[in-house]
Amino acid sequence: MKHLFSKSLLLIALFCFDLLPSAAQEISIIPKPVSVERQSGEFELTGKMSIGYSPELSELATYLHDLISAPTDLNLPVKPVGKKTTINLIIDKNRVQAEEGYRLEVTPKKITVYGASRGGAFYGVQSLLQLFPAEIFSKDLQRGVKWMAPAVVINDAPDRPWRGMMLDVARYFYDKEFVMKFIDMMAMYKMNKLQFHLIDDSGWRLEIKKYPRLTEVGAFSGPKENRMGGYYTQEEIKEILAYAALRNVDVIPEIEFPAHIQSAVVAYPWLSCRGEQLEVPTQHFISRDLLCPGKETSIQFLADVLEETVKLFPSHYINIGGDEAVYDRWKECPYCQALMKKEGLKEVSELQGYLVNRVSDMMKAKDRKVVGWEEIIRRGNVKNPVVALIWRNVEDSIVATRTGHQAVVTPAKDLYLDFPEYKIPGEVQAATWRPPVSIDKCYNLPLNDYSKSSTVIGVQGCFWTDQFIHGTVLQELRPLDENRSERYAEYLVFPRLLAVSELGWGKPSQRNFEDFSQRLKQHYVRLDNKECFYRLPQPTIVKEEQNAQGKYVFTLEPSVPGAKILYTTNGEYPNSHSPEYTGPVEVAEKSNFHAITFKNSRRYSLPIYFAPDYSAYKQYGTFVGEWTPMQVQRAQFTLKLDATGKIWSNGSYEVTLVRTKGTNGLNIGNLTLLKRDEKLAEVKKSAVLDGSNIAETYSFTLDSFEAGTPFSLNIQANGVGGNDVSGLVFIKKLK
Questions:
Q1: Residue 649 and residue 433: Cα distance in Å, rounded?
Q2: Can you tell me whether residue 245 is helix, strand or coil?
Q3: Element (H, E) at 127
């Protein structure tokens, strides 16, 4: 009897287990839905099924059909919703009230996606796709896959109406196909606003028929043999917009002015104050040649360009840029000075407010709302409500609140994805004017809950491409048909875009980075199937401890399911021949241990890296460089230090040299601060660092900071009595 009783319990347990969704069908949707209810059983996709649709969703049904048919080879009929349709896409505003909300019901026999709008139904489809095996995202036939999805009920809606990304195609031109892929990846993670950065000093990318030289001349730079650039015809823009509309992505054109417009000035010199013939730059810088607001011909140019742009783009929003204008030309321009006198303006910066008002009046008449970087609400009194992109500091959004405007939070220090994730030696070339933006820093950006009365309507990540014009390191070799620019963009944007998507979708109280990290692990294989060249994360350190012998013991686990971990304990970086991790590793020095995520001989991560500990010198600020006996000479030499990223805004700074060891002294002289090759400051000094005087400090003030621009420090020095002297250099911003 005892045996029979035990056997009965086992059968009951097995029966109950069979009713539960399988562990293989773990729900790992990003962004995380508001509500997920697991049900018993699973849905299996077969060729006997069909896709049904409400009249408004026929295009979405075809989209789903095409996605499913490629990897599964199942040609599911697409027809209006009926009793026998299996996967149904339905507009139902009674079941779903939120504009972009959806309800997804999956049973063992049927799938129904309800949306309050086409956008909501589209997002329901995206969550459905994430329930199937990752191979569902492949463009190629996948054999041997059981197309199962767990039975589930999901009720979901975004917390914020603006969940955006900015793509810079002005500094570096990406072709139409890549822009579409970028939109597709945004839509996969329920992001709905693409700021299309079409205009900058280094390129004009939008065909304007009334001003053909904007693209004939302004879209290209460099000599004939190295000519680079490009632009989108209006027909290509229409293709992009149709592609985006199906995916619920609102493409917002950015026509930048009064700064970042040298490409237009090159084409039509009369647009600027001086009217000089310039060249489209091949190196990144911020041009001083602004659009001249004092000339009515310049205002008419804007009106004409915006007229064509608005006709082309259906978005309710038009972005006018407005950042980083340096007003030197306006100060000396007789047209601008006459306008200031006429309008009763006291500060030259108020001319920008005048310009914003002229343009916002034009756009209001066309039922368009102006968007721009936060400078547009800080330069004079802007009459019409606008949307300010807050890129300097999240707290600056309060300026919008006080002045009747709206804000989208996109702080550089948290959401600029052209910064690297970490500062690891060997990282790809990336922006360095601010510290790295790790994925957890991006995900954990503090935000207030959104409400309809709030002025902060959402968040936006930004991807700038000025790194392509800091030299030729990133330029593609067209004869080899390379696509390194696309891979570079994807490497930096992914997987951080997934963090931005969840940041914008849910309430702050629902965010949990540990939970997000676990779900993220299931998305790497989905990105693989989407042919997205994301940044492979380093292995995860589960435990780090010291044993009785004082040695460090590391326990690891893969960050990417299915990938190997390879490691070294001699300080060298691992390669494909390094030993594979199978259990805890013991090392005498932390700095000797490195480990990589390894997928194959061409796809592996940077190593786990332990940065030197400078906490003992925290009173001096941030580490900026060092000197060693190999650099020191008895004759005068120049200690050259890269301060890009350590100097991050205007203000007062201190640079401190600290002698750490050696038998000799170091004689130090003048310090020079350089922005590229431009000398900004020189600090005179004569001192000796030795056993009795281990630290010396230089002080200077900076008032011409430029984002994305390299800064360096040159210090004159020589060894005293020899070259056996080492030390560290730190920098601290005072205010």
A1: 9
A2: helix
A3: helix 118-131
How many CB atoms lie under 10 A from the CB of residue 492? 25
Q: What is the Cα–Cα distance from 311 to 363, expressed in whole angstroms? A: 12
Residues 613-650 as b/e (b if ≥16 CB within 10 A, e otherwise) read eeeebeebbbbbbbbebebbeeeebebebebbbbbbee
Alpha helices in 259-349 (DSSP H): 262-267, 296-312, 328-332, 334-343
**DSSP at 272:** B
Pick out the chain residues at pLDDT < 70.
Answer: 1-25, 449-453, 470-472
**727 vs 731: CA distance, rounded Å:** 14
Non-local (6+) Cβ contacts of 466 within 8 A are 168, 171, 172, 202, 284, 418, 431, 708
Closest CA to 123 of 99, 148, 101: 101
Q: What pLDDT score was predicted for residue 104?
A: 98
**Long-range contact pairs involving 358-362 (C-beta distance under 8 Å, separation at least 24):** 358/293, 358/299, 358/302, 359/302, 359/306, 359/320, 360/384, 360/386, 362/302, 362/303, 362/306
Q: Would you state the pLDDT for residue 136?
A: 97
Task: Kindly report the backbone phi and psi dihedral angles of residue 703, in degrees, each rounded to the nearest multiple of 5, phi listed first.
Answer: -130, 15
Q: Alpha-carbon distance 183 to 193, whole Å?
A: 9
Within 13 Å of residue 105, how many CA atoms lie on the same side as its CB? 12
Contact present, 54 and 113 (Cβ < 8 Å): no
CA–CA separation, 98 vs 157, rounded Å?
6
* Residues 544, 202 contacting (CB under 8 angstroms): no
H/E stretch holding 251 reads: strand 250-254
Cis peptide before 584, with omega less than 30 degrees from 0? no
Kindly state the tokens that stand for 167: 């793509």
Residue 451: what pLDDT?
A: 65
pLDDT, position 644: 85
Q: What is the pLDDT of residue 472?
A: 64
DSSP for residue 588: S
pTM above 0.85, yes or no: yes
CA 270, CA 291: separation in Å to the nearest integer? Answer: 9
DSSP state of 141: -
Are the C-beta atoms of 709 and 669 separated by less than 8 Å? no
Per-residue pLDDT tens for 471-493? 667 777 777 878 889 999 999 99
Residue 296, classified by CB atoms within 10 Å of its CB into exposed (0-12), middle (13-18) or buried (19+), is exposed
Is the CA virtual torsion 349, 351, 357, 358 positive or negative? negative
Number of alpha helices (DSSP H) and beta strands (DSSP E) in the chain: 18, 34
For 200-210, the pLDDT digits (tens) are 999 999 999 99
Whole-number pLDDT of residue 395: 77
**Residue 590 carries which DSSP code?**
G
Rg (CA), the chain: 29
